[in-house]
Please model this.
Amino acid sequence: MSGLRIERIETRGFIGVGRAEFPPEGFELENNVWVLGDDSEALVIDAAHDAEAIVRGVGERTALGILLTHGHEDHVNAAVEAAERLDTHLYLHPADLFLWEEVHGDRRPDFELADGAEFRVAGESVVTLHTPGHTPGSVCFALPGIRTVFSGDTLFRGGPGATRWEYSSFEGIVDSIRSKLFTLPLDTRVSPGHGDDTSIAHEQPDLEAWLARGW
Model:
């Protein structure tokens, strides 16, 4: 039986401060940060807004790394501080470096993520799935042993993530969901970067409706 525990840390903060497309004070968002581990080690998925909350969530355990689902500000803005305080490494798909650099400049992540890259925590395998669409370097992290996938901003309860930017693709995100996520077992739990969990079984029947509405 797996000794893995999953903790969701809800963080809140402002993005886009000082940017012309946002109000002067920025735009407030609430994010999910996921901490996977047992009593001795932990792996973090995303690093949003609040490094202190992430450090507290890991506690005295060995931090095996911080895996980033994509490069948007609200998923990476606490990454550098959290990694330094936890003495661990940052992982990001290289196709999202241009977004990372908007937040962190020349301070690069430590390692590049690639489709199929595998991590281990608390005896469980964590498999990287490259799921472009929301951003070119978006990824999800699947734990086949416990039928769970951490979907970042690729799939939410109610449909795909946003594709309103010039570097995004609705067709791409649908193809990613269809080929990488909807091939997972139907009872797979989907834990996104914002909001509540869902499941493959709950979302899969709505694919044609998403295509009809175009988002």
In short: The chain has a mean pLDDT of 96.
